[in-house]
Amino acid sequence: xxxxxxxxxxxxxxxxxxxxxxxxxxxxxxxxxxxxxxxxxxxxxxxxxxxxxxxxxxxxxxxxxxxxxxxxxxxxxxxxxxxxxxxxxxxxxxxxxxxxxxxxxxxxxxxxxxxxxxxxxxxxxxxxxxxxxxxxxxxxxxxxxxxxxxxxxxxxxxxxxxxxxxxxxxxxxxxxxxxxxxxxxxxxxxxxxxxxxxxxxxxxxxxxxxxxxxxxxxxxxxxxxxxxxxxxxxxxxxxxxxxxxxxxxxxxxxxxxxxxxxxxxxxxxxxxxxxxxxxxxxxxxxxxxxxxxxxxxxxxxxxxxxxxxxxxxxxxxxxxxxxxxxxxxxxxxxxxxxxxxxxxxxxxxxxxxxxxxxxxxxxxxxxxxxxxxxxxxxxxxxxxxxxxxxxxxxxxxxxxxxxxxxxxxxxxxxxxxxxxxxxxxxxxxxxxxxxxxxxxxxxxxxxxxxxxxxxxxxxxxxxxxxxxxxxxxxxxxxxxxxxxxxxxxxxxxxxxxxxxxxxx
Amino acid sequence: xxxxxxxxxxxxxxxxxxxxxxxxxxxxxxxxxxxxxxxxx
Amino acid sequence: xxxxxxxxxxxxxxxxxxxxxxxxxxxxxxxxxxxxxxxxxxxxxxxxxxxxxxxxxxxxxxxxxxxxxxxxxxxxxxxxxxxxxxxxxxxxxxxxxxxxxxxxxxxxxxxxxxxxxxxxxxxxxxxxxxxxxxxxxxxxxxxxxxxxxxxxxxxxxxxxx
Lengths: 504, 41, 161
Fold this sequence. Notes:
By secondary structure, chain A is mainly α. Chain A has helices spanning 3-25, 28-36, 40-64, 73-98, 104-115, 131-146, 148-155, 164-169, 180-208, 213-228, 246-259, 263-270, 276-279, 281-304, 310-325, 335-341, 344-356, 369-387, 408-434, 439-450, 466-480, 484-503; strands at residues 397-400, 402-405. The mean pLDDT of chain B is 91.
């Protein structure tokens, strides 16, 4: 191995080590929950998890010191993508020890699903899950929504330099403030403010709905963390259907739509630029696509005649559609009802909604509103250009925080990422079909994984082949990080491999 | 004095921001319900 | 007079039906219910399973979620029936196993399209029990050893930095 490659690996190892330790310390939160709920075995699982995180973290640091602490572009990308894999394995430990996941692979699947705010799950006997493990599941979703590295930036600011690439590597490209650490703080400030408001609202609703106060509080916090992160995990196996309540459903809808907004949009509105909410290209894009798709789905559902009144159409049709479009994945129906009770058009509408997703630099997945907006605008621009006299110059603008001129580069990169998502979606569908699942189920599940949504037509289950589980983990990971940092990682590995090959 | 005024101003701005977001989303949900009402029998 | 007679006869027929129907009703599990919802829609069925989570009171009725191992189903019960339930399933308890006889709805118009069962009769088949979750010695030793190792690693790591 060349000297520079060795130096590269040392720097990468150092940063991953630091982040893994910070991540491990977060296990104190579910540990405290387990203590409060008197779940002593669960306390031990987290103690073991924490110890392993500290050992792995410091082991990496010891191996890597002394090293160059300034990160360059590709190192940052690699740290970002690899961190998600290493923390996935460490985070899966308490799951695995708890025995509610049959294999370590299943536990890893659920950790990645939580991190990437997808929400597909392979847990067994979910209705008897301990409070501690539930807290960890939902906390992972909450962390993943904001970004693991975004959190690490706050916990370990002094030792990190050149960290902006890390932040970009995690598919968060807006800078709210000039300093990246302050941006990370602003992101967490916004999320924590909503945590207090949202959990309180859900807790009060829970008590009103007949839950005991302590359970209402826990469920309030958990459902908030999952909804805000557009995650989709729920503490009970029936997801939101468990609560049988319009009120609870409406509160969750409000939380996950707000959660699907771009952090730059939140920041802009909070600092006084309130008109941004209806001018922003992403909110406009979301309004248009969601309205069209909801009209399609509702018309079809009304036609099939399963849901007769407005309340049922709203609580089943609208809820699932918005849950899919914001890439949340909360359900108020059983998975197989999609296949049996939703007509073809409604299924197409929800598959498109899942692929479109919500806003960039938010907790959501999918193509993202800004890319759809830009692509549509550039198509309009092309049509205008064709219709105008040859000498005329057509300029198209879009509004994102400020009004900007639509440049060819924007359209190009937006298209590229959309194509990458489509390739991923196609790959997933083909793999599902190859494993023998029906076409419609395959398309639905693949769209759900690609968009980090978490709605399921029943394909994701423990009995699913291991190959498919690994493919889904990979798909969730690469889709959440928006390809770039993962591709840099592969490039790095291939380059290293080809160099070693040449030497031999 | 000036600093406190400034702080209050920031807090008011955040509060208004929160309210704007929540009201906007409530509006979206109402539109959704109206669509459902339109298609219901 | 004839009208009154018809009303009385109809009334008699219906009341006998409601008594007889539970006997005629079939036991259905949750998977069959979801897969063949259309077939069982608005029919009286029997469903058995464990009460999980909360008994959520709503006025003179309550929601109870009952799991048969594959899925949990929402049961809409009168509070007098709900009061029979003593243990609700969770981490510490296995809930009561109950048998519900009631009307199954594929998309209940009264409850915003929920798939549910409006329970008319509830029997407790088996009382719930406290789950015996003993502290596992294996994990105690493992956590002590690993914590000790973690301290050493942290000490060496801090020193080397």
